[in-house]
Structure to design on (330 residues):
């Protein structure tokens, strides 16, 4: 099985200097490592050429974000499996073997995520992915190990192998032929939640998405765009609506109406916390959503919405009303 590890970079010399050595140490004998550069203006590319000559470089012409950046780069790579790895991830010894074994033994498994722990607080799961992702009926994402801002300590409770709904884009393995069949990421997303859309579309085609706790990585999180940045709030809320509109089966109108009400409550919560810029970001997210709605509905017509996408009706109610803050209590 030919494996390509592809790290997307934009002005990330510092991150590459810190994290690329672990990837090379624990991966170079089993995979070809690439850095896909999103038109950086720092000295990232020269640094890689001079310091890590075994790493191949793909130079994108523009910074198209996560979605377009990977779409453009992966066109130039021949492999059976792509590993899309954030530049702020530290990998561990033998992290690839459990992933490769699942792919070899399960032909229908198209996407896999390892256990993702917090680089700075290593006994805890990391926000972006934790032990595998799910969404509720209204499109709000959550993970085993992380519901909204409550992060669980890793005590081995998720050292299993399980079918999940979505795999984190911080470290996502995907069969190359599936990525091509899906025509890659939806570039309208730019960044954030495009991996949920990708996984959903894969599942709609009958493929399986899995998590394996036998593989472990450590993720910094927020190294590119901090949670304190209103742009991240904008992208998360808008792209969640994009994903729901494109892929959810059933009465879309009712789903979106309820979702808009819940988002309004989130906006008020930000205001009460004196975070007016984040409240405004939600409003902007909705206007952007309306602007894209005709195209989203067109995409919806061309997709096969066969699967029930949720285990829980409303993780918002479970968390904020019933105070169910851990996955196993939902």
């Amino acid at each position: 099985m030919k494996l390509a590890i592809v790290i997307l970079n934009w002005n990330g010399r510092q991150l590459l200097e810190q994290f690329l050595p672990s990837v090379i140490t624990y991966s170079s004998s089993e995979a070809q490592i690439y850095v896909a550069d999103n038109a950086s203006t720092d000295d990232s590319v020269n640094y890689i050429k001079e310091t890590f000559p075994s790493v191949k470089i793909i130079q994108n012409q523009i910074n198209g974000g996560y979605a377009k950046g990977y779409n453009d780069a992966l066109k130039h790579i021949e492999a059976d499996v792509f590993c899309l790895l954030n530049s702020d991830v530290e990998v561990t010894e033998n992290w690839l073997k459990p992933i490769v074994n699942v792919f070899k033994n399960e032909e229908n498994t198209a996407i896999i995520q390892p256990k993702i722990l917090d680089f700075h607080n290593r006994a805890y799961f990391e926000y972006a992915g934790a032990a595998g992702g799910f969404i509720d009926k209204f499109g709000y994402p959550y993970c085993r190990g992380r519901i909204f801002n409550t992060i669980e300590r890793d005590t081995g409770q998720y050292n299993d192998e399980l079918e999940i709904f979505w795999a984190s884009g911080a470290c996502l393995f995907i069969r190359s032929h599936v990525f091509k069949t899906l025509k890659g990421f939806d570039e309208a997303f730019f960044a954030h939640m495009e991996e949920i859309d990708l996984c959903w579309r894969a599942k709609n085609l009958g493929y399986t998405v899995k998590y394996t706790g036998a593989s472990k990585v450590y993720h910094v999180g927020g190294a590119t765009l901090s949670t304190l940045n209103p742009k991240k709030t904008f992208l998360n809320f808008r792209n969640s609506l994009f994903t729901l509109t494109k892929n959810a089966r059933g009465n879309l109108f009712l789903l979106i109406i309820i979702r808009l009400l819940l988002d309004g409550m989130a906006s008020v919560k930000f205001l009460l916390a004196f975070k007016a810029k984040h409240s405004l970001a939600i409003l902007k997210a909705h206007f952007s959503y309306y602007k894209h709605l005709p195209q989203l509905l067109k995409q919806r017509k061309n997709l096969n919405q066969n699967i029930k996408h949720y285990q829980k009706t409303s993780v918002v109610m479970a968390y904020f009303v019933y105070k169910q803050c851990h996955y196993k209590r939902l």
